[in-house]
Design brief:
heterodimer; A: mainly alpha; two-stranded antiparallel sheet; 2 strands; globular; B: mainly alpha; 2 domains; about 0% strand
Chain lengths: ~550, ~170
């Protein structure tokens, strides 16, 4: 089975009129919700899950592909026109993009973002198509011990590397794992954490959990701090670029792609690190370094490309290993499961046509984004003026509708409110939501692999490290866990190295970027890119 | 141990300790629940249904203790920002509580009065809570949304939302 012919079959499926329509709906919807404040692609996919129960899986996933890329693109439009980025991956785009827009170059900023996203998305999807089957070939040789180790790595990496406080990340993970325990134990049939409530015996529906945490929690949180002064939105015409802009953009696009894809594919990838690395690199390589901070086009082109390439990279472990590493991929994994499809290495064998149609529709969605969004940019800018009461009332309305339509039980709405309150509290006290959602989704699968492993080894814990891959992964896990301790020794040994690692300003970051160590980069990113100097004093004392 | 005046002053403005308390309580609940499970040892399932809950309970309790220590030492979580979020003013309960009220009203009404009525109440109430004051326009939008979603779900997706009081009319 070679990649090219499978992909062509995928295109044949994805290009039928009905599926093309789903792709268009996905792209438009994804961009719209990406543009709208308070909504993100993860929330949109979660809200649409119940709707897609009526669709066949291929159509649903083609639509999700459109939403996924559209949401990324819409987020960057908002950060260029508003300078209040909603997603952490758009933070870097806002630095230069909003300066460009203020200087009257909004059209060029949007154009370089759109075209850069297209190029990065296309290259990233090509890499996905080439890499995923290779990862699958490698993954089919792995047994339960290795899978268990990989899942542990993914959970710990997302928890420990992303976000400013590891302790709060682990607290969130613990809550997520606890929520994942609710229901009947799949092996012995015993009820756990159901408190005698029969409705809890099947566990909490992942749609309810995701919608509650992403949508209800967010709506309540924004309502509590609703900005009463109207935001200043920069008006924009149709995006275009001049010859000089093209000349200055194409290299950053390619370099951004090179940063984005590998980081997206790593278990603790995400788009924050590569967008930041791309920004720093462009700043250093630019012939116009004096323009940085005042609207340099390279500073939009590179990070935007990195962002989209990372989005494509994230799908590699998600499709090949069943391992989601960002919120949207996590919810898409839940969607796979709800169709009775098990993501993982067998996916390419059992659901080959579906997977290749999904990959083909990523290419199509990318092209549609470019065709649709260049002329529609002024419309998206208008969308930003939607009255906020309608926007957030609408989020609550559709969240309720989505959660209710799964089982038609008012009980689910009670859970929605309770978990929504939890989401509110987490936002208030800086607990990241991604570890919780991943804990809910991966927790039961993790437990399944653990029990299978020890069943095979007849209860001998040594079974956990009976495969060489598992041992290597545990070494990486240990490094991630003990990173703060290692850093402490490192600083004691070489005090002069401190500024490079703990740099609080973007200016010191190139030093960090030149090391090959992703963790140092993360730390620098947390401190520098968000530029809030908010890495709490606590952040350094913690040692979970 | 710490003397009482210090305790009082340390507790001031540390609402985040509530999070530690919640984590700790969750950990204890998970532990007690797992402890109450009856599990005969089985060769085919040496791990059993208790092990993972015990690990999760441990993680929660450890996080609770470390978080409490962290907060008492002056650490604090960073509240989440966003496009429409203005962290300069404190939590506005006058918006949040009516919003929750509209949500609860929907839960109570949905089975009895049906989705069209409860959805209208939910949307209209939420808009009102969030500061919308065009009562008639908001009401018409709410009603239109509820009716459209009712028929959209029924005709498009085959999901019959409850008609409630309006059964026979819709």
């Amino acid at each position: 089975m070679d990649v090219f012919s499978s992909l062509m079959d995928g295109f044949a499926t994805a290009l039928t009129p009905m599926n093309l329509l789903y792709a268009v709906i996905g792209v438009v919807l994804g961009t719209a919700v990406g543009v709208l404040p308070g909504l993100g692609p993860a929330m949109t996919v979660a809200l649409l899950l119940p709707v897609t129960y009526a669709l066949e899986p291929t159509g649903a996933f083609i639509m999700f592909a459109g939403i996924y890329y559209g949401g990324m693109y819409g987020g960057s439009t908002t950060s260029i026109l508003l300078n209040t980025p909603g997603e952490s991956s758009s933070v870097v785009t806002a630095i230069e993009g909003n300066k460009m827009a203020k200087a009257g170059r909004a059209a060029q900023a949007l154009a370089t973002a759109a075209i850069g996203s297209f190029i990065a998305g296309t290259i990233g999807t090509t890499l996905l198509a080439v890499c995923a089957p290779i990862v699958v070939q490698f993954a089919v040789s792995l047994g339960s011990p290795s899978y268990f180790a990989i899942m542990v790595l993914a959970l710990l990496a997302v928890t420990a590397v992303l976000g400013s406080s590891r302790l709060r990340g682990f607290a969130s993970l613990g809550l997520g794992l606890a929520i994942g325990l609710v229901g009947m134990d799949s092996v012995t049939g015993q009820q756990r954490l159901t408190f005698g409530v029969p409705l809890l015996a099947d566990g909490l529906d992942i749609v309810v959990v995701a919608v509650a945490i992403f949508a209800v929690g967010e709506a309540l949180w924004v309502a509590a701090h609703l900005r009463r002064t109207p935001l200043h939105i920069i008006p924009v015409g149709r995006p275009w670029m001049g010859k000089e802009d093209w000349k200055r953009s194409w290299k950053p696009w390619l370099r951004g792609t090179a940063f984005g894809f590998p980081f997206g594919a790593l278990p603790a990838g995400g788009a924050e690190i590569p967008t930041f690395l791309s920004y720093v690199t462009e700043k250093r390589l630019s012939k116009h370094p004096e323009e940085f901070g005042h609207g340099a086009i390279e500073g939009v082109a590179g990070p935007e490309a990195a962002n989209n390439a990372a989005a494509a990279g994230t799908l590699t472990p998600m499709l090949a290993l069943g391992l989601p590493t960002n919120a949207t991929a996590a919810v898409m994994l839940a969607a796979f499961t709800s169709y009775g499809i098990q993501p993982g290495p067998q996916l390419f064998a059992t659901e080959g046509p579906l997977v290749w149609a999904l990959i083909a529709s990523l290419f199509i969605g990318n092209l549609l984004l470019l065709i649709i969004n260049l002329p529609l940019a002024p419309v998206w800018a208008k969308l930003l003026q939607l009255p906020r009461p309608y926007l957030y009332a609408g989020i609550l309305f559709f969240a309720t509708l989505g959660a209710y339509s799964v089982n038609l039980q008012a009980f689910d709405l009670v859970m929605l409110l309770v978990l929504g309150a939890l989401g509110f509290m987490m936002r208030r006290f800086g607990l990241p939501v991604l570890p919780l959602v991943l804990g809910v989704i991966l927790g039961p699968r993790l437990e399944g692999q653990l029990r299978k492993t020890l069943q095979l080894s007849a209860g001998d814990p040594a079974g956990l490290w009976s495969e060489p891959i598992a041992v290597w992964i545990y070494v990486v896990v240990a490094v991630i866990l003990f990173w703060p301790l290692l850093m402490r020794f490192w600083r004691k040994a070489r005090p002069e190295a401190v500024p490079a690692v703990a740099g609080r300003h973007v200016t010191t970051a190139p030093d960090a970027a030149s090391t090959n160590d992703e963790n140092a980069d993360t730390r620098a990113l947390d401190d520098g890119a968000t530029d809030t100097s908010q890495t709490t004093p606590a952040g350094r004392q913690e040692n979970p | 141990m710490i003397s009482s005046p210090t305790v009082a002053s340390r507790l001031q403005g540390r609402s985040e300790l509530g999070v530690a308390l919640l984590l700790g309580a969750a950990g204890v609940v998970v532990f007690l629940d797992a402890n109450g499970l009856a599990t005969p040892y089985s060769r085919s399932d040496p791990v059993g249904p208790k092990t993972v809950p015990f690990i999760v309970a441990g993680l929660l309790v450890i996080c609770a203790v470390l978080l409490a220590v962290n907060v008492l030492r002056g650490g604090s979580g960073e509240a989440e920002g966003g496009e429409d979020v203005d962290l300069a003013h404190p939590v506005d309960w006058k918006t949040v509580l009516p919003l929750v009220g509209a949500f609860v009203a929907n839960i109570l009404l949905i089975g009895w009065a049906g989705w069209v009525i409860s959805g209208t109440v939910l949307f209209w109430g939420s808009v009102w809570a969030l500061g919308g004051r065009h009562y008639v326009r908001d009401g018409l939008i709410s009603l239109a949304l509820s009716i459209l979603t009712f028929y959209g779900f029924f005709l498009g997706l085959g999901i019959a939302l409850p008609a409630g009081l309006l059964e026979g009319i819709l």
